[in-house]
Each structure stands twice: as C-alpha cells, then as structure tokens.
Design brief:
Blueprint: E1 3-7, H1 13-22, H2 25-28, H3 35-56, E2 61-67, E3 70-79, E4 83-91, H4 100-115, E5 118-124, H5 130-135, E6 139-143, E7 147-152
Parallel strand pairs: 4-5
Antiparallel strand pairs: 1-2, 2-3, 3-4, 5-7, 6-7
Length: 161
C-alpha cells in the first residue's frame, strides 16, 4: 500500500464533502429524512466545520490522503510552538481498517518526537479509532460531553496535567 499526501486544491470540495459525510452516515441512518435532506444536512455541517477550522486554526495544513493513487481521505494538522494538533484525520469507509490511519499517525508521531512537541487530538468518545490512539501512546488529558482530548508527549510517556 502506497500512501501519499497532496495539498487540498480548490476543486477538492466535492471530495472533502464526501469524506466528511462518510463520518455522519451511521448517525444519519436512523433519521427519518430523505437522502436529499441528509445530503443537505451534511453539506451544512461540513460548511460549519470548515468555517470553525478557518477561524480557530490559522495556517492549518490540509492534505488529501492518497492510497495507491486513489483519493482516500483527508488530514488536517495545526503546528504550534509546543504542540502538533491533529485537527482531523478521516479515511473513506472503503479505506478504513487497512493500516493507513496507523501509518499516518506514525508519521505524525515521528514528526512530533523529532521536534520535541506534544501530539494531540480531540476524539469523539465513540470513535472506533480510540483504541488505536491508546495503543500508540495517546492518553486522555481533558474531556467534554462528546470529546476526549488526547495527547502523546514527545517521549511517548503519559502526559499528566
């Protein structure tokens, strides 16, 4: 499996919306809406998320993940003086469970370790990748009703705050 990254381009909007919508499929499956209504809702939520990221993460690195030449997901990363934040890492369903997410995380762990920075991510409590983050040394350091903030320090040890 060959994983490559390329910067998000202006014509990627439909792809990025499809990637985002894939993260909402399970919850929307139980909503008694038409497919058109679900698509409109996902588009509205994607626009709100994009606006939030633009407001709160200046200089955000946004790349499309390619697996064997196929657009497979997106990776959004904020890099600050003391921390690297994984803002979003999403693979389309057909690319999940094949190890690509772990490889992307390993590359970010390597970058953070070399730079001597914490690596962090906010994860929904029901995210099936939670176990992967824990296996890779991320530990909860904060929480809200929906999200866990997880961090991995540069040496891979547990962060205590």
């Amino acid at each position: 499996m060959l994983i490559m990254l390329r910067p998000v381009a202006g014509d990627d909007e439909p792809l990025l919306l499809r990637i985002y919508a894939s993260t909402r499929e399970q919850e929307l499956a139980f909503v008694p809406w038409s497919d058109q209504q679900k698509d409109a809702f996902a588009a509205m939520q994607f626009a709100a998320q994009s606006a939030h990221y633009a407001q709160h993460y200046a200089g955000l690195s946004a790349v499309v993940v390619l697996i064997d030449g196929e657009a497979a997901g997106r990776l959004l990363v904020a890099r600050w003086a003391e921390e690297i934040r994984i803002v979003d890492i999403t693979l389309l369903p057909e690319f999940r469970g094949r190890g690509a997410g772990g490889e992307l995380l390993a590359a970010l762990i390597g970058e953070a370790t070399v730079a001597g920075k914490r690596l962090s991510i906010h994860v929904e409590r029901n995210n099936r990748a939670l176990g992967l983050y824990e296996r890779l040394g991320f530990r909860p350091v904060g929480e809200t009703a929906v999200y866990l903030k997880m961090e991995r320090d540069p040496a891979g040890a547990t962060v205590i705050r």
